[in-house]
Specification:
Oligomer: single chain
CATH topology: TIM Barrel
Strand order of the largest sheet: 1-4-5-6-7-8-9
Number of helices: 17
CATH class: Alpha Beta
């Protein structure tokens, strides 16, 4: 099979497919016993620093599940380390940044490097996986959206209210602009590097953009995401944008011109597609918690989402966010197989 004919890439272009393509955000990770075995002796950063190991983890769900795309195993915060950020992952807390960015001097000190210098191990892992998957399925590369990455940088980790970040965004707009400009430049370079290394599509995880009003997203974030999308467009590689709690942003997302817009589970898929518009493909949108539920309920919900898609070209089946830890692997496998079974032409 040539790259052009991959089911997933055809759906990104809203072309007819023989079955609805399926992949899962966080499909490589903590719910898989093969991954947990590797984690007994390696931290997340250890895995990302070893291209062969990152490639192995990327391929684990490819071997275990009936999916139509792989996504490189990495973390959206990896490019921050070469920028000068002190990043660690605390057990039970997630990412922690020991030198948060909160002043003009902090922003000015951030370095923007080409990905071959900044993140060579991730690019090498992409090269390994893309060679391994040739003729089987495409590999998705990804990066965090500038707002989401900035939220970690400014807050020093995860946040519920984003008070430090919104304080900078509203109170020091010139500093905010300098930070977002650097992040959009870094992100565009990073994604272009992934494409050169073999990524056949890229996703921008604008994960926490739902913390903003549509007005603030449009004024203070969207121009920087647009710079990233515009930088990728000449490559012809499909782009996906995704965030959580973004029902109020979907019509704005569609204006970015990405090929695909992801929807979370807080909105019906057909309503989301109406907001995105018929000229965009849609990705989504099963609640990840349903993967813990009874098989009968899971089956009904899969059928409901497929019914909302109504067979229109351009639907990529996915979750409304990433697979949760401890998710039963058999249920993930069931969903992928059931989607293919129900949509086979």
């Amino acid at each position: 099979m040539t790259q052009h004919d991959y089911r997933f890439l055809r759906a990104c272009r809203r072309e007819p497919v023989d079955k609805t393509p399926v992949w899962f955000m966080r499909q490589a990770g903590r719910y898989m016993p093969e991954y947990r075995a590797i984690r007994t002796n390696n931290t997340l950063l250890d895995i990302c620093a070893q291209p062969e190991l990152a490639a192995e983890v990327t391929l684990q769900p490819v071997n275990a599940l009936d999916i139509d795309a792989a996504i490189i195993f990495a973390d959206i915060l990896l490019p921050l380390v070469p920028m000068g950020i002190q990043l660690r992952f605390a057990k039970g807390e997630g990412p922690v940044i020991d030198n948060p960015v909160r002043t003009a001097a902090d922003v000015d000190a951030l370095k923007v490097l080409d990905p071959e210098e900044a993140t060579p191990t991730t690019l090498e892992a992409i090269s390994i996986v893309s060679r391994e998957l040739e003729g089987k399925m495409p590999l998705i590369g990804f990066a965090g959206g500038p707002f989401t990455v900035a939220s970690y940088m400014i807050e020093g980790g995860s946040s519920r209210n984003y008070l430090h970040m919104k304080g900078l965004m509203y109170g020091e707009p010139e500093v905010w602009d300098r930070l977002m400009t650097k992040l959009s430049d870094m992100t565009a370079r990073y994604l272009l590097g992934q494409i050169r290394a073999g990524a056949a599509a890229v996703q921008i995880f604008d994960s926490w953009a739902g913390a903003l009003s549509p007005h603030d997203y449009r004024q203070r974030v969207m121009p920087y995401v647009q710079q990233i999308v515009d930088a990728i467009k000449p490559t012809g590689v499909p782009t996906i944008v995704f965030g959580t709690s973004t029902a109020g942003l979907l019509s704005t997302y569609s204006e970015l011109g990405t090929d695909v817009v992801g929807a979370d589970w807080r909105i019906d898929l057909d309503t989301a597609w109406d907001l995105i518009g018929p000229d965009r493909a849609i990705q989504g949108n099963l609640d990840p918690a349903l993967l813990f539920g009874p098989r009968e309920e899971l089956d009904q919900q899969v059928q409901r989402i497929l019914g909302e898609a109504s067979g229109r070209p351009g639907h990529i089946f996915n979750l409304g966010h990433g697979i949760l830890p401890e998710t039963p692997v058999d249920n993930v496998r069931f969903v992928a197989e059931r989607v293919h079974e129900l949509t086979a032409k």
